[in-house]
Amino acid sequence: MKDSGRKPGRKDSEKPGKAGRDDRSKRDRKLRDSLGNPFLWLVPFLLVVILGWAVFSSMFGYRTIDTSDGLALLRDKADTIESITVIDGTQRVELDLSSTYVQPKKKGSEARPLGKKVEFAFTDAQAEQVDRLVQAAAPKDGYNSVVPTTTWWSSLIQLLVPAVLLGGFMWWLLSRMGGGRGGAMGFGRSKAKVGSKEMPDVTFDDVAGEDEAVEELEEIREFLSEPEKFRAVGAKIPKGVLLYGPPGTGKTLLAKAVAGEAGVPFFSMAASEFVEMFVGVGASRVRDLFDQAKENAPAIIFVDEIDAVGRHRGSGTGGGHDEREQTLNQLLVEMDGFDANTNVILIAATNRPDVLDPALLRPGRFDRQVSVEAPDMAGRAAILKVHAKGKPLTDDVDLDLVAKRTPGFTGADLANVLNEAALLTARSNAQLIDNRALDEAIDRVIAGPQKRTRVMRDHEKRVTAYHEAGHALCAAAGAYSDPVTKVTILPRGRALGYTQVMPQDDKYSTTRNELLDQLVYAMGGRAAEEIIFRDPTTGASNDIEKATSTARKMVTDYGMTSAVGAVKLGTTENETVLGLNATNRDFSEQVAATVDAEVRSLLDTAHREAWEILTRNRAVLDELAEELLSRETLLEKDLERIFTGVVKQPERPLWRSDESLPVVEVAPATVASTDGEAGGESGDSHGGDFWGYNQ
After folding, report:
1. How far, in Å, are 85, 93, 192 from residue 118 at the CA level?
2. pLDDT tens, 7-60?
3. Cα torsion for 67, 70, 71, 72, to the nearest 10°?
């Protein structure tokens, strides 16, 4: 945490030495508590007792001998036997001898003394023989027959030992499920992690590329640190803040930064942790989580992936009485229980705000909804600079160029790019991260690792080269397409090669002509295969899939065809039984046939245009393919040299959804200003007989 420029309400952190001592004392106290647990000492004691009993029995008890040796002892050495005990049930004979018995030498074993107490076993068939020999031996102290009976003490032990073992196992299982607080029955307690008040390690300085979101959350920080400033003017801070956006954009980081800036405890918990196997656990954990936060107010509660419990009630297979909905109901009740003096703010994050229950989003609960989107070019450059700290880069590395080459990347993607570059550098035993490592890292994040072991035949390699050359040439010849930055035929991921077409700047909308050019260069690979080899391959399947999807959206979503018009066809249902999005067709079979015909027309037109481009620039196509076969990868400078002689496509004529609508090339207001006359009624483009009403 930086001390310079400390914002109002920011708490000074304690010395690192004190924090370290506190951590050590906590660990020592936890260790002492664990050692003081009687159950911890009971188990080793029992093990020692059992082991000692086994050793004692083996040393001073009866030693087992073979049945043949025992019968021979009764028959031939009866004078050495002092007493005999025949045990029925276990079929054993115990012999007390006057002298040490030496086991006879046998194959594989030496003769060894066994002591004065031996025993042997016999079967039911040998019982008569054993009885005869025992009576014939007539030992000095006599013989005895024993029938074992179970005493009440042994029966009690046999009953208690399994019960104790089962109880101990259940206690251990419940304590593991409890997750900390509450002991063995603490499964209803919250598992929220409390951030240290003395060690806020994340600040707004660690957040880059999300300036708008930081500005919105700055107000939250000020309220937590200076609540009287707002109460003096009667202002109420939002009880809840919902952060929504694509995965990896930094929603969790923003929530931690608010807590770090305000210097307050941070309670973090995933929404899926509320719901487990016991009914009512989710609601209990919600209550416990809010109780913890109120006890430590001012505080921040952060619930990640809140859509796990915050979905529309009544959806799914559980109906309206499942455990998830009970948890949601308790969450709604707790958020309503906040008063103006409770300095507890709930921050939640989700990737799908459209599936949340409307009761969560109403004012009074999640009053403020902050969009955390993928950063623009300046934001990506700032994020790269944050993640580049601690990574040695060469002097020629320009992070702005890296940001330009990564449109649409989130903060997590950019962090992954720099990490992959560092891993590649370490793998090659280099000391500095260079542009080559960054280039390879970007390719790995986009398309996956390169498959160096995949060996293609010369013909397949040639087909791939012409396929990618067709894509690149159609993109370069298009009047509305973005520049081609890279072409390669090296297998990567599931692709045999790929062509990168990157925009120069961030784009937030796409024109119809740009979409048509995308269809053209998507079909360029297939057209090149047909022109050169007359035998297309399956390599264009992904291109056809993407082109078909784009064309269908142009017809059904964007209203870019005259036959269908500006009509949204099909409604998307977010709530299905399987949890997947499904599109319901709410139009007739006739309209569906028209949609299919328009999609087919768009794709056929794109294929014909790609054919014309490749035929017109056949020499450039061959040169590009040969360069790819020899060098395998071509970058932007090489492509600019090869595409010097490309014949560009002419601009398309003006498209109108309705041909009856007139088009005014120059607005009347522009003409009036050009003539030096003031605009007014006469300068209105909708005046006069523009629409033909006054004819």
Report:
1. 11, 8, 64
2. 444 444 443 444 444 555 555 555 555 555 555 566 676 777 777 766 665 566
3. 120
- Other C-beta atoms closer than 10 Å to the C-beta of 450 total 15
pLDDT digits (tens, 9 = 90+) for 205-241: 778 878 888 888 888 888 877 878 888 888 777 788 8
Q: How far apart are CA 523 and CA 471, in angstroms?
A: 7
Catalytic residue among 468, 529, 598, 627: 468
Q: H/E element holding 350?
A: strand 344-350
Cβ atoms 630, 599 nearer than 8 A: no
Across the beta sheet with 81-87, the strand order is 63-64, 112-121, 92-103, 81-87, 143-146
User: Whose CA is closest to 350, among 256, 246, 238, 207?
Assistant: 246
Q: Hey, how many other C-beta atoms are within 10 angstroms of the C-beta on 55?
A: 10
Q: Which tokens go with 666? A: 């120059």
Residue 540 corresponds to which tokens in the numbers above? 């264009």
Instruction: Tell me what percent of the residues of the chain surpass a pLDDT of 70.
Output: 78
Please give the average per-residue pLDDT across 82-106, as a whole number.
Answer: 84
Distance CA 493, CA 465 (A): 17
Structure tokens at 30: 């936890």
Q: On the CB side of 629, how many CA atoms lie within 13 Å of its CA?
A: 17
Residue 198 backbone phi and psi in degrees, to 5: -90, -10
What does the alpha-carbon distance between residue 419 and residue 433 come to, in Å, rounded to a whole number?
A: 10
Q: Which two tokens stand for residue 576?
A: 């299905």
Distances (CA, A) of 546 to 326, 521, 542, 601: 42, 11, 6, 16
In 10 A of CB 177, how many CB atoms? 15
Alpha carbons 198 and 263: distance in angstroms, whole number: 7
Q: Name the strands in the sheet holding 498-501, side by side, starting at the edge strand that comes first in the sequence.
A: 498-501, 484-488, 633-635
Question: Burial, 254: exposed, middle or buried (Cβ in 10 Å; 0-12, 13-18, 19+)?
Answer: buried
C-alpha span between 230 and 228 (Å, rounded): 5
CA distance 424 to 437: 6
At 280-327, the pLDDT tens digits run 677 777 888 888 888 887 888 888 888 888 877 766 554 444 667 777
The one-letter code for the residue type at 73 is: L
Distances in Å between the Cα of 417 and the Cα atoms of 19, 139, 294, 486, 599 are 34, 91, 41, 17, 37
Question: Residue 568 corresponds to which amino acid?
Answer: K
Q: Is 407 exposed, middle or buried (0-12, 13-18, 19+ CB in 10 A)?
A: middle
Which tokens hold the place of 34? 């664990």
The pairing of strands 484-488 and 498-501 is antiparallel
Give the angle 588-592-598 at the CA atoms, nearest 5°.
145
Give 677: exposed, middle or buried? Use CB within 10 Å, 0-12, 13-18, 19+.
exposed
582-584/240-244 β-pairing: unpaired
Alpha carbons within 13 angstroms on the beta-carbon side of residue 202 total 16
**Beta-carbon-side half-sphere exposure of residue 665 (alpha carbons within 13 Å):** 1
Q: Please give the Cα distance from 616 to 328 (Å, whole number).
A: 63
- Which residues in 504-560 belong to E strands, given as ranges? none
Is 575 a known active-site residue?
no
Q: Give every CB contact of residue 504 below 8 A, 6+ residues apart in sequence.
A: 404, 482, 483
Cβ atoms within 10 Å of 483's Cβ, excluding its own: 15
| Residue 676 binned pLDDT confidence (cut-offs 50, 70, 90) | very low
The neighbour count for residue 374, using CB atoms within 10 Å, is 19
**Residues 256, 445: Cα–Cα separation, whole Å:** 27
